[in-house]
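B., you asked whether I could sanity-check this one before it goes into the benchmark set. Here's the sequence:
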Amino acid sequence: MTQENSNAGQAALMQIQIIPVTPFQQNCSLIWETTTNKAAFVDPGGDSDQLIAALEHFNLTLDRIWLTHGHLDHAGAAQTLKEKYDVPIEGPHKEDQWLLDDIEAQGAKYGFPGGRNTRSDRYLDDGDQLKLGEITFDVVHTPGHTPGHVVIYHQDAKIAFVGDVIFQGSIGRTDFPRGDHQTLLDSITQKLWPLGEDMRFVPGHGNMSSFGQERKMNPYVSDSAMNRA
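And here's what the prediction gave me:
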């Protein structure tokens, strides 16, 4: 686990713990509001016992589950946690419900046991907001990796949870069903870059980075790479 503290505005109330889960080492984020200890999981892809242990370790009350998209390594444990804690699942966009309906089949295909089909209690779209105690997060719809992918961010804290849209030095795959490369590039350059170069992000896999760093160095979507396209 690696811990990140946020220090501005509402962000002073926020704590984030990154917990890699599943054989794919997917970065599940545990976020909590320190005045109430209300917590949310972003992309609980699996290893529910490990996630439950993290809640207990920090003495937190799970309040909601947020999904960036419907792939099993991001959503596989959502139904188990929803039933155990009686909390809503929010996200992704409605265009990913077909993937949430297919988690068990995805697991069988990839030899990935334990994931369960689930259904979102609230689909998300551009301009929607998510509440965790006194903290408000914003949402943008970022299709390309999947048609219903969303990114959840907090402007004051300068932190975004980007799922599999962008990584340190790379971008999301678009060779899965209903993926589209140009749509992904448009999501990154038209939806994420305007959030600011100082916006740091937790990717679905690998190390954190910032949009500014990726605009300089990412071989797929840096400003120089896009100017060559």
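One thing to flag: The chain has one domain: 2-228. Otherwise nothing jumped out at me.
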